[in-house]
Amino acid sequence: MSETTVETSTPRRTVSKWHLAIAGVIVLGVAAAFFAGYLPRRHARAKVTAATPAAPVAPKVAVVKAVAVDAGRLLSLPASLVANQQTQVYARASGYVSRWLVDIGSRVQKGELLVQLDTPELDKQLAQAKASLSQTVAALAQARANREYAYITAGREAQLYAKQLISAQENDQARTQAAVWDANVNAARANVKAQQASVGQLEQLVSFGRVYAPFAGTITRRLVDVGTLVNAGAGSNAAALFEIVSADPMLAYVDVPQTFAPSVRVGAQAKISLKNYPGRAFVGKVARTAGALDAASRTLRTEVDLPNPRGELLAGMYVDVSLDVAVSHQVVRVPSSAIISDARGVHVGVVDGSGKVKLVAVTPGLDNGSTIDVVAGLSGGEQVLSAPPSDVADGMQVQPVSPG
C-alpha cells in the first residue's frame, strides 16, 4: 500500500506548479499591457494640463454705496490770517541813528516818533542854503534901491528935457535905465523865491531825520540800532528801520470752489476757529470777493474781515473759516480714497451687477477730509470702489465686497 501512495502523489504536485507558472505569466502580461497603455496617456494628459493656462481669478475689492446728500451746508475752508495793514518803515533822509524809541511788540499810534537820526550833511546843506537866501534877499534890496534911484533920475531928466536943457537921447537913456532896474528887481525877487524853496526842501529833508509811525499798529521787527548808517529811500542800497502791522481787523483769504461760489454774499457772517482756542468761534464777515474765478483752480478768492480788538489773533495763524453756502442740486458723497486722479482725468470706479468696473468721469466738489462731495457724474446709489487698485481699468472683472 505504501508504494501505491507514492506513485499517485507525484503527478499532483507537478500539475499544481505548472498551473501557478501559467497564472504568473498571465498576470505579468496583463500588467505590462496596462502600463504600456496607461503611462503614455497619463504623460500626454500632464503635458496638456501644463500647457493650458489656469482661468484668472477676479480680485476681491471693497465697495461702498455712493450717497446723495443735500448740498446746502456749512462750508469749512482753511486759511491763514493776514494783517489788515503791514509795511516796512524806511527813512527819507540819510544819516546815523541817534536813538530809537520803540522795539518789537510795542503798540504805537499814528504819528508817534519811532527813531531819530543825525543828519550832518543835510544840516550843512541847510546852513549853506540859508546863507544863500540871505545873499539873494540883500541883492533884492539893492536892486530895489537902484531902481528907485533910476526912477528919480528919470524924473529929473524928464523935467530938464521939458525945458530943453538936455537932449532927447539923455532923456531916453534915463527912462531906459529905470526900466532895466525894474527887470533887475523882478529877477532878484525870483532868485529869492527859488532860494526860499531850496531852503524849504532842505528843511523838509532834515525833518525826515525824525521817523514817525504811518498808522496805528504793532512793531514786529526792529532792524536798526544806535549808530546804524541809514540811506534815504527804499532802493537796493536802503534798509528798512522797522516793520509795523495793524492787526485790527485781521483778514482771512479763502478760495471757495466754483460749485459754491454763487452763494457767497458780501456782508454774510463767517465763523473762524483755530486750535489755539478750542471750542471758541470768532465771528467775522465777508468783506469782498474777487468777482471772478481763478482760471487755474476754479475758485473764488474771498476776503473775510475779523475784528481783533484785544489782539488775540496773530498774523500768520492757521484757521478754519466756515461759510453758509448752498448749490441748486444734490451732491453725491463718496470716500476721498475712491477718487482716481491721473492723466486720464478725475474718475470713480463703479462696479455693475456683473462685477465689471466702469470708470466714470466726475467733478469733485468739497473735500471733507475722509469724504468728498461729487457735484457731477454720479446720481447716488452706485457701488463704487472705496480703494481702487493701481491697475484698475474699464471692464476689469472684480469680486465686490461690501463692508460688514
Number of strands: 22
Let me know the average pLDDT.
83
CATH topology of the largest domain: Elongation Factor Tu (Ef-tu), domain 3
Counting structural domains, the number is 4
State the helicity in percent bands: 25-40%
Gyration radius (Cα, Å) is: 53 Å
Description:
- By secondary structure, the protein is α+β, with helices and mostly antiparallel strands.
- It is built from 3 helices and 22 strands.
- A 6-stranded antiparallel β-barrel has the order 3-10-13-12-11-14. It has a 4-stranded antiparallel sheet with strand order 2-15-20-19, with no helix packed on it. It has a 4-stranded antiparallel sheet with strand order 7-6-4-9, with no helix packed on it.
- A hairpin with a 2-residue loop joins strand 16 and strand 17.
- Helix 2 runs antiparallel to helix 3.
Summarize the structure.
The chain has 404 residues and is an alpha+beta fold.
Give a quick set of tags describing it.
404 residues, alpha+beta, Elongation Factor Tu (Ef-tu), domain 3, six-stranded antiparallel beta barrel, four-stranded antiparallel sheet, rod-shaped
